[in-house]
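Researcher: We're teaching a course module on how sequence relates to structure. For the next exercise, students receive a sequence and then see the predicted structure as C-alpha cells, so they can try to spot secondary structure elements on their own. Here is the exercise chain.
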Amino acid sequence: MNSIQEQKVILEHLVADLLAEAHHQGADAAEAVVSQNAGISIGVRMGEVETVEHTRDRGLGVTVYFGARKGSASTTDLGTTAVRDAVRAACNIARHTQEDPYAGLAEAALMARDYPDLDLYHPWGVSAEQAIELALECEHAARALDPRITNSEGANLDSHEGLYVYGNSHGFSGGYPSTRHGLSCAVLGQEGGGMQRDYWWTSGRAQEDLESPVEVGRKAAERTLARLGGRRLSTRTAPVVFQADVAVGLLRNLIGAIRGSALYRQASFLVDHLGRQIFPEFVHIHENPHLLRGLSSAPFDSEGVATQTRDLVTEGVLRGYVLDSYSARKLGMQTTGNAGGVRNLAIDPGHLNQAGLRQALGAGLWVTELMGQGINTVTGDYSRGAAGFWVENGEIAYPVEEITIAGNLKEMFLGLQAVGNDVDTRGSTHTGSWLIDHMTIAGE
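Model: And here is the predicted structure for the students to work with:
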C-alpha cells in the first residue's frame, strides 16, 4: 500500500487531469474533487457480534462553467475513460442549462495558499478482533452496572480514515488526510411497569481522544437508570435548561437561520438582522476551523477559500452570516469561507456548573432529550417533544417524559440567562447547558 503522501500525490494528479480535460472540452472554468475512504464498523448486542463491516470507497466530482452556465457530474470509477466521460457529461449539462449570473468559482484572491497542518490524521489500525473486544467491553460495562438494565440496543465501534483533494482552474490545488473514530452504547432499563432507554457516545480524530469503553457503557446505563419512573407534567410556563448535549441543537438552529441559502430565499427569522442584538450582551459565538484535531477543522472550504477563525456573535450582536460564494453573490456580499458548513462552532461558557445551573433554574425543566422536528425556520416557532427532569428548589425532583416544549427561537435566544461550564466537546459544536428564562411546557 502506498503511503498517505504518495496516495495524495496520485489524487492531485487525477484532479489536474480532470481540470485539463475540462479545458480541452471547452469549459471556461472548472473545479474537481477526488476522495477516498476506508474503515471498519463493528456492532455487538447482548454479548454477541451482530455486524462486521469493512468499507473502502472512492469517487470524484467535476463541475464545469461555460460562462454563467454550470454542469456537474460524478463517478466512482477513477479510470481514464470514466474520468473523460464524467467531464463530457458535465460539459453537456452546462451547454444545455440556463444561465445563472451568480454561478462560478469563488474569487481567485480568496484561495488558500499557505495553510497549516491541523493534526487531523491519526490512523488507529484496530483489527476486527480488537474492535469486537472493545465493543463487548463497552456493552458489558453498561449491562453489568445495575440489575434494572434488562436489555440492550448494542454497542458500536467505528474507525475510518480518508483522503480529500480539491482543485480548480484558478490554479488552486490542495488536500489532506483525516481520521475519525467513535464508540457508542445504548441500553434499556426496567422498573415496575416502566421502561426507559438512553445512550452515550464518544468520538475523536485519534484513538486516545476517546473515552474508555467502560466509561461509555457506564454513562449509557446511568443515563437510562436516571430516567426510570418518569412522569408527565401539567401544562405550564417555566424556565428551561437545555443540557449541553441537546443545547448543541440550538446553536445549529442559529446557523440554519444565518446560512446564505436561507437568507436569499427570505426563509429565515433572522433576515436583515446583521448588526442587531439577537442574544444578551454576555454571548460570544465563534468558529475555529483551525482547531487542532477538531472534528470539522479544515484549512480551506469546499471551494478552496481559506478558512479563518471568526466571530458570529459578539456582545449578543449578530456580526456575520454563513456564506459560500453563490449565496454571497446573491446577497451582494463576499463568501465567508463556509462552503461545506461551519467548522468547530462554539459559544463561550459561563462560570456555573450543573449544580449552579439547577440553583439558578430554581423550579423548572431540565431537558435531556428532544424528539421531532417542529421548527419553522421562517418564523422561528419552536415545538419539540422532550424528556428530562423536573427541578424543585435547585434539586432534581423526578424524571419527566411525554411532554412538549414550545417557544420562538428569537425570544429563546434573547431569553438566554446563562451558559454552563459543562461544555460538551465530543462533536464539532461545543457548548455548555443553556438556561432559558421561560418556555411553554405542554403535558397533561
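Model: If you want an answer key for the exercise: The chain is about 25% helix and 35% strand. Residues 4-24 form the longest helix (21 residues).
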